[in-house]
Here is the input.
Amino acid sequence: MDFIISRDSLLQALTRVSGFVEKKVQSGSILCSVLLQADASGMLRYTGTDKTLTLFGQVPATVKVPGDIAVDAGYLLNTVKSLGGETVTCTLMDQQRLEVRSGSSNFRLVGQAGGEFPVTPPLDQSRSLRISAEALCRVLDQTLFSVAPDDNRYGLNGAHFEEVTGPDGTSLLRVVATDGNRLSWSQAPFTGELAIGRKSLVPRKGLFEVRRLIDGVKGDVEIAFGERAAVVRLEDCTIHMRLLEADFPDYRQVLPSAFKRRASVERAVLQEALKRVLIFATDTSRSVKFALADDTLTLTSRKLDAGESKEEVPMDLHGEPITMGFNGRFLQEVLGVLGSTRVLLELGDTLSPCLVKDPDSGDALFVVMPVRLD
Amino acid sequence: MDFIISRDSLLQALTRVSGFVEKKVQSGSILCSVLLQADASGMLRYTGTDKTLTLFGQVPATVKVPGDIAVDAGYLLNTVKSLGGETVTCTLMDQQRLEVRSGSSNFRLVGQAGGEFPVTPPLDQSRSLRISAEALCRVLDQTLFSVAPDDNRYGLNGAHFEEVTGPDGTSLLRVVATDGNRLSWSQAPFTGELAIGRKSLVPRKGLFEVRRLIDGVKGDVEIAFGERAAVVRLEDCTIHMRLLEADFPDYRQVLPSAFKRRASVERAVLQEALKRVLIFATDTSRSVKFALADDTLTLTSRKLDAGESKEEVPMDLHGEPITMGFNGRFLQEVLGVLGSTRVLLELGDTLSPCLVKDPDSGDALFVVMPVRLD
Here is the structure.
């Protein structure tokens, strides 16, 4: 193997792949490696995997001798990052060593034969959908924060994908996430076909990597579901994610069908007020007391032996006054992913879930469970 | 106590004090607090201490009722940081609570009586020196990185201050630091008197806080040494540091009096090359092999099972070729605090210390001990 490649292109590829290789296992494991495959067509293909999540990518290179090798992804990234020149020359040496040269710098990285690298099974599905990268960014931003980080209720560790029909009959991709204390869904139109196999629960880690890779991407992204895996295809790379073998809860049951009170507040004002009351809401549930009466929402928090804080937010309330508690951080995260000037809070009784909405858009919905006030 | 103060001034004061209060002890300890004293002269005085290091400062305020209270420095900093208004009103309530108001925000912080706050003894010294803040920044930058972080050789945990006479007869303040593997000294002219008491070994933490506070300060700084403490005075605050009760080693003994080889290299080129070879110099001593021959300095490093790297740096060498090892990180840190275009490396034999200098300035000197190559 022998190829010359632009330093910046190689650096971008290795930065992308760094989120996909295993970091917890001992250095030297093949799962810490990136597989490099230089082929005669003038492409360097790169692959990184932790066996559940795989990135396949390609970048143009001047390939003199085709070949492949797997080298530690972290060391190669640090090496390329440190180089000052515009191009990098990579040559396979004896004993599976990769020589990396640029200017007066010469590195030799210990590698493993490309054949040692784990093979990701191809997707058993040809049908796919297309969605704008920009819309997918919004949908993921509005849902991923609600996925449980590492729950023993296995079905909560991913986001659920499904197709719904919009009011005007268009096909929408809806992504739903919950950690048991809050729930979000967000949707956007797509073309093509969402052909779900046995499951449609996509793991959190994979979706975070998808979100990272589509940041700023123009144009469409392709998504396909197989029996055990889903793939997301961008112009120059493909993310392969093994699906979670668990059931997502029947989330429609959780959604309140009616409300007794509706409050409308300015989003930025509530967000700022929450930031301040959270300073003294330091218990595990970050409890903030919400008192809704007349035209004022009063937020209070208290930490014994430290202090307390109080904020007043102007509000339009329809319904009876009520006082109830919420995890202030959860509401803050919802407000952070809404783009609207005002938000609606739809409330039932003291222990009923709160629904948070953009008053002008039905593209997303957020449910936050209340906390008991002592 | 009742005063109105600019939010930005109070925030700056609390940010400064945050480096001086104890963070390791449990919240609620008086050592986590900042003492606020509002007096009739229109000043808010603030004090933070961990009992070895104290900051006294003052900031203008509109004082309606003089008084004092000690409140948790971290909570107060977060509170003031979160406020959006231009001014903040602070009022002492019953039961040692401090009310902090701004706009529609209202905080009440639990405090302790000002009388509970530990008293720092005043300095038993009236003589002092004056040095430009800019020069003191350079002197501290060129020495602090060499202080041992937490050594059981207690005398290495601080920097030694002494007076030396420059070639033209001027009085210079010299600061010296070593961790046993490297040594730096740096000096600058001063006026007034350096009247050292019993000791002149200033703890690392205090000097880092001094460095932080004088960053960007124009004009002079005053320094005075007492029997057990030293103070550094700025325009609007004073740092009081308890001195280390230990002896600094006789550092002049370590300085090589002659050299057999002298190499001159471009500082930035060596710095870049070191950055790259350090990727594979991951043992505890960050060993890099330096081979000096003819007009090239060749740097190499190697990590078993990972890889190796080689860099060539153009060099002017006077003396015989030699190959020896150094901690690459130590040399990198020295190069980072030198401002010159070229640097001189003065070498003896394989296991003799290396002296690093700016060829055009005698204001600072760096010694790095070699490491054995396997």
